[in-house]
Amino acid sequence: MQPEALRLSEITISNLRSIRRETFPLSCFTALIGYNNAGKTNILMGIRWLLSHFTLNGSYFDDAKKPVEVEGLFEGISDAVLKRLGEEQADALLPYLMRGVLRVKKVQRVPGDSKENLEMMVFVPPQRRKERRVWEPASFAFLQAFERVFPAPITIWDFEGNKAFTRLLHEIFKPLERRFGNEFNGLISKFSDLLSPTSEMQAKEIRSFDRDVNENLRPLFPSVKVELSIPTPTLETFLQAATLKVMDDDDGFERNIESMGAGSQRAIQMALVRYLAEIKKHHNNHYLSRKLLLVDSPELFLHPQAVELVRVALKNLSNEGFQVIFATHSAQMVTSEDVSTSLLIRKNRERGTFMRKRMEDAVHQVVQDAPSQLQMLFSLSNSNELLFADYVLLTEGKTEWRVLPVLFEKVTGQSFALIKCALVRQGGVSNTRKSMQVLTAMDMPVRAIVDLDYAFNNAVHDGFLDRKDPDLKYCMDLFKTLALQEKIRLVNGVPVTKHSRMSASQAFAMMASMPEAKKPLKSIHAKLRYRGIWIWTNGAIEEHLGLDGKNEKCWSNFIDRIKKGRIEKIVPDYASLEELCKWIIEGSQSCN
Fold first, then answer.
1. Rounded to two decimals, what is the model's pTM?
2. Start-end ranges of CATH 3.40.50.300 in the chain?
3. Which tens digits make up the pLDDT trace of 158-198?
4. β-pairing, 68-75 with 7-16?
5. H or E element in which residue 580 lies
6. What CATH superfamily is the domain 3-161+279-352?
7. Residue 39: left (phi > 0), alpha (psi -120 to 50), or beta?
8. Exposed e or buried b for every residue in 410-423, given b needs 16+ CB within 10 A?
9. Other residues' Cβ atoms within 10 Å of the Cβ of residue 468
10. 116: CB partners within 8 A, 6+ apart
């Protein structure tokens, strides 16, 4: 079994702040992406609460009359994991395991309730149920074994204060604990003889304390006796209490880390994360446990180069025994490799915090064969900006991707970012229908901009136009006329570039320029526009803008002219451009 399989693969959270009830699938490296106040931190809190020992006050209950419930699905608890746990602890888990999968649920019914009243439940597989109970209380033995496999997470977020430093330092110095723990504890045990009430070597001061206090207590409460108990420290105790002192070369002062500003604290936290990633390389502890690292906005206060270093460190940790889950606002924290498993977190009044379907799941839903799934994932994953948008505009060519943002802002006074629109280049126009289906499955409003040839080469196959469409037939008759006059080569009635006197794009532009083509092309445009597709009726965007090339020099010169001059005078078909911008804005309004 691959080490990555051991993980919390799914979390279901109910009634926790903005999360009414929602299930979130998790990978070994999961980005939670959403706008401020969408509920990303609430997801992290739900995971932390499930795996830790603390209660929730009233501020964490969406409805104080209902319980908060968090259910986790844990995968990859293999025979190798059970063997390393030992027979006794493995036996505590086995009755609840089904093909290496375990379900655990935590319930708090009353805000501010005591830890003792929290309910920790474990799911009973159908074939092992002696009664009809689906869930039963987790035994102490079960919880001990479970916590060895999935220990309490390390959390890094603003309201954790100094705890994040302490947990990171403890994790970093675990090799020290393994190397010197026995030796240290042996030395401490000698000292513990001075403290223990059962030891013949107990210090006389402690013995006197017990005797004298009890003499004073006896007249007040004859049946009660007290005995001083001093826990024996261990090396782990000292490591967990470790903190950092910060020396400033500029002013020479030494400060506690908690007295530093938020930016300084975050920089030091992320430096510790990077160091932890370095020392954890090839540590070969994958098969025993999976510790979660929960980070809220790892990019906070960091410059772009530092953000990339932190992303790499977190990614490396996800391959070295940690499961990394983080909330982010930065596209730099998510590369194409991880786009498909990132979670788009959104919130509205009706649903509270919810998740759009993951791209990976949407692709598998829409595309059936595996090679096509990989191609589609690669195509969409290279546009990670769509994860930070509420609306996607697919484009076919580089020209649209390069000049449309400038044109849109010039015409409307708004940016694509302002209307939460991502401009995404497709891997090929043949992907238009599937790309739109995948994004629709993700509950993401989507529209597409394509060249004229799409109407004749793809729209029928994609189901957007009827095969017997009279406007298509009329235009194809015009192609026959052009073929005879201009020696254009046609295949299946449509221009092609190979063995032709001109390129296919030139042939489409020539047909579009014919006066008799205007009416049917306008009709085709309207039909596709109704289906969420904008088609360039003059052939391609270059004909509408008056561009004479498709290269960086041509685009840069055009953009400079647009920025300095009057766009109405520069763009030959300004009316179509203005109409396109209105259509784009209409698409953004549909997601509100």
1. 0.82
2. 3-161+279-352
3. 655 557 777 787 787 777 666 666 776 676 776 677 767 67
4. antiparallel
5. helix 574-589
6. P-loop containing nucleotide triphosphate hydrolases (3.40.50.300)
7. left
8. bbeeeebeebebbb
9. 8
10. none
